[in-house]
Amino acid sequence: MDQAKDYVGKEISIGAWVTNKRSSGKIAFLQLRDGTNFFQGIVLKNEVGEELFDTAKSLTQETSIIVKGIVQEDTRSKLGYELLITGIEVVGESHDYPITPKEHGTDFLMDHRHLWLRSSKQHAIMKIRNEIIRATYEFFNKEGFMKVDPPILTGSAPEGTTELFHTKYFDEEAYLSQSGQLYMEAAAMAFGKVFSFGPTFRAEKSKTRRHLIEFWMIEPEMAFMHQEQSLEVQEKYVAYLVQSVLDNCDLFLDTLERDKELLKKYTQLPYDRISYDDAVALLIENGFDDIVWGDDFGSPHETFIANQSDKPVFILNYPKAIKPFYMKEHPERTDVVLCADMIAPEGYGEIIGGSEREVDYDRLSQQIEKFGLSTEDYSWYLDLRKYGSVPHSGFGLGLERMVTWISGTEHIRESIPFPRLLNRIYP
């Protein structure tokens, strides 16, 4: 029914599922979905006859049908169209569908995730996710980036092995990737501007509403680019995604009751920036006694900092000790690195992490050793600093966090079709 406007007044045939129904003595209203959207079908007894009317009244939730009807404009419908039904063919009956219109608990819905995806709100979230994916490819293609696919199985860990899934790779040790970044640096040295878009894995035993075990990351890397230029790409990209959802997911945002005026503010550039130093001072001034310089920020800290603005906020130049080995040291300070996290408004936390990368071979070697990593495992990564090293920067955006924020969803588990959580690998 996404193309209903092109068929007004015409009879069509379409496959659909019944989500709900109500009827009186002479008219039946069928709530239907065809995968693209939700719409209403009307069956008039006087026009279709008793047999077809009885069929319509007997349809049960999630029964699949081939329905014929005439497309009509309907200003009361969010879709703007409805179907005056002239024929119904039952394809697959559905009895005792477990997810009824009543309230269900989260565990029950997660156990039935394979069916919960059919509901209007889950459908809307997945449609927004799809639009963000589509717009991501569009943005990077327009900006002259090439997509490169890093491996999922790796022999080393860019941020240490404590939160990685270990596996055997024949007679060698291997890990499921937690980031494609190091490989994207190699790709940037070959192709200039690149991005990856693939699954990543974290064995972090976290139960927060912001964490998944398996998630998707968009990781651009850019040769001949310093951190300041990278920040401009980041904010431009995020604003592009928000605008694309506003342009192409209007009905789905309505289904989720998302404040579109608020989203429009997030398209206005530039985004605000605050240094880590100033962020710590701001928190202390406002009663956050649990934070001292050198600590990483938790959810309450990020939320407070973000609430000082009505747009996403960059927190710049974190302490070197709490960031990965590959980040470039600040040119004027030895205690912080050239990096930034983008914090989303409304309490949604970090959606992007990025930095300028260390380009000096000796300093990078020292950092690898300092972090207790093997220079042999990273010899290929160090090669990038031996053969034509250039300034380069990159970042990673978590797709599910982006979906959660833009859709206004409370928990990240609803931002991916089949979430993998600490205690959940079913279905």
Automatic annotation (TrEMBL):
One MF term in the entry's GO annotations: ATP binding
- Catalytic activity annotated for this protein? tRNA(Asn) + L-asparagine + ATP = L-asparaginyl-tRNA(Asn) + AMP + diphosphate + H(+)
**InterPro entries, per database record:** Aa-tRNA-synt_II, aa-tRNA-synth_II, aa-tRNA-synth_II/BPL/LPL, Asn-tRNA-ligase, Asp/Asn-tRNA-synth_IIb, NA-bd_OB-fold, NA-bd_OB_tRNA
Please indicate if the UniProt record lists Methyltransferase as a keyword: no
Tell me how this protein assembles. Answer: Homodimer.
Q: What is this protein called?
A: Asparagine--tRNA ligase
Species for this entry: Trichococcus palustris
User: Which terms under GO biological process does the entry name?
Assistant: asparaginyl-tRNA aminoacylation
Q: Does the keyword Cytoplasm apply?
A: yes
Instruction: Indicate where this protein resides in the cell.
Output: Cytoplasm
One GO cellular component term noted in the UniProt record for this chain: cytoplasm
Which Enzyme Commission numbers does its entry carry? 6.1.1.22
PANTHER family, sorted:
ASPARAGINE--TRNA LIGASE, MITOCHONDRIAL-RELATED, ASPARTYL/LYSYL-TRNA SYNTHETASE
